[in-house]
Amino acid sequence: HLFLTIVPDNRNVSGMGRDRYLADAYAAAHLYYERGLTQKEVARRMEVSRPTVSKLLSLASQEGIVLISVRPPGQRDLGLQTALVDSLGLRSAVVLPGSAGSLDTREILLAQGTVELLKESLPTLPKVEYMGLGWGRAMLAFVEAVEQRTVIFLGGMAEVVPLIGGSGQSLDIFQINEIVRRTANALGTSARLLHAPALVNDESLRAALLAETSVRPVVEAWRKLDVAVVGIGRKLDPTYLAEYLQEEPLQHESLVRWSVSDVCSHYFTADGKALGEEHDARLVAISRDELKRVP
User: Fold this and answer.
1) Which end of the chain is more exposed for a tag (fewer CB within 10 A), N or C?
2) Mean pLDDT value across residues 171-180
């Protein structure tokens, strides 16, 4: 749902030419948005060309003459939300209207719902010092949703931290430090970055990396998280192993065959059982147990 408000321009603007142009922009916006005329009809009424009307409408938006707000369609299913909270022992939940549209459409709805859930649930926490973020398509949509909000609902929070490594990743959905940095900037707080790959060759290398001075502050924050925002991934794609983790898919046959989802590259079967013990031992990410301890 799209809502528009037209605000008369009462500022003291120097120059008669600019005054006239702003007045024309207001008139065009009034005819187009409030009277419902087409751009062709507006052009005829104002005795200008159609391209001029388009420019006037753009000016009206740029100058704040037209204010636009977008409200998600539909209503929450409060009954299902209550059932989820009761049956799963959740603090709170948000159930959004389904979408048969594109994947991008579903991610936008999910991201907006996540922001609303945070706005509702964070005030109930005794403190918020550390917020952890995962990676993926849904997380990138979440970042964009936070950046578009005019109200910073986490102002004053101590730090945002990554929950998984991602150095060297080319796709923006896997660039975890950029996801963390953008979120921290939008929330008006600071970030701890993790300069490490997501997966290393062996368990000893992982242990040494997590003990590094530059990495240790992030690892310590994992144990103190107050909030974690993560995406729930889809079934493991063998091309992901080969292209982005530089791993041979045959090394992870059980993951490819049985996994249905993941959280921060920790994989699960359809009945919720953990998969990939050897994979997890080399994963530079928050552990499953640490994730479970997040409030």
Assistant:
1) N
2) 92
